[in-house]
Amino acid sequence: xxxxxxxxxxxxxxxxxxxxxxxxxxxxxxxxxxxxxxxxxxxxxxxxxxxxxxxxxxxxxxxxxxxxxxxxxxxxxxxxxxxxxxxxxxxxxxxxxxxxxxxxxxxxxxxxxxxxxxxxxxxxxxxxxxxxxxxxxxxxxxxxxxxxxxxxxxxxxxxxxxxxxxxxxxx
Length: 171
Prior knowledge:
Blueprint: E1 3-17, E2 26-29, E3 32-35, E4 38-47, E5 49-52, E6 61-72, E7 75-86, E8 88-90, E9 93-112, E10 115-130, E11 136-151, E12 157-167
Antiparallel strand pairs: 1-4, 1-5, 1-12, 2-3, 4-6, 6-7, 7-9, 8-9, 9-10, 10-11, 11-12
C-alpha cells in the first residue's frame, strides 16, 4: 500500500518575545535597521495534509509550541512540539495526529522593518493514529519549508508558513 505522509501545513501563529525583546525586533534608525537577537517562544495552529493511496486527502488540525534562539537578523535555531486538536474523516476512515515535532535551522531575509521571508530546514516527525490497518505509525525525516513573518508592535509577530516532511516511511 503506497502512503504519502505529506506533513505539509499552513499555519498562522503569534510569536511572543521575552522581556529582553519587549520592543520591535527590527527598527529603522537613520538608514540602518536595528536588530535585537535572543530567545523567542510562539504558538502555531495549522493543518497536516495526509494522503494515502485509494483515499482522499485527510486534513487534521494541529497546534504546536515553537521555541528558538535568534542569533542575528538572518539565522535562528528553532524547536517545535505539539499535537492534533481535530482529526479528519474520509467515509469511515479517520486520521489523528497525536504528536508533531521538529528541530530546524531558520534562515531569514529581512525585506522591510515589519516584514521578512524565511526558510526552515531540519528534521521533523509525527505520529499518526488511524482507525484502519496499521493503526499507528511514526514518520521521521527531512523537513523543510518557506514562510513570511509580519512584525507587530511590542516584539510580537504573525507568520504564515508551508512545510513538508519527507519521511522514509512510504511503503
